[in-house]
Amino acid sequence: MTTKGIRKDGKMRIEDKNLKVWREFYDRYGNLISLNGIKQNSLVIVKLSIQSDVDELENIAITDLLPAGFEIENPRLTENTQYKFIKSNDTPAYIDIRDDRINYYVNYYRERRQTFYYLMRAVTQGEFVYAPVVAEAMYDGDYYSASGGGKIKVVE
Is 10 a residue whose pLDDT tops 60? Predict the structure, then answer.
């Protein structure tokens, strides 16, 4: 089943085809934050969630491109378990960290929803474009999702 449009929470759904991916932004205390005025040098906790209606699905790639003006805090160096609001952080099969993106590679075996967190820091002031987060089964075109995107503003 393919769906498009705006979710009940107002976030843009670009396309869902038997898979759903979305992201949310939190401060270090677990409060949802607005993307209209993030203070420079602030730490932003990104929550990526993926959901499917099947019990087993392998080789799913989740790609989250960072907007200009942000840097990833390397999850191999930064422990995100220090944030008490993070209750369940699933473990991907593999993480690929680049300067401009983070890629998670995951498999489903009886869990229909997985959640991943990573940290990014606002380093440069300005208004930037944030690309949609995308998830797709690498070897099965019947599973694809893209959502989010828009503008993000970093202030002094």
Answer: no
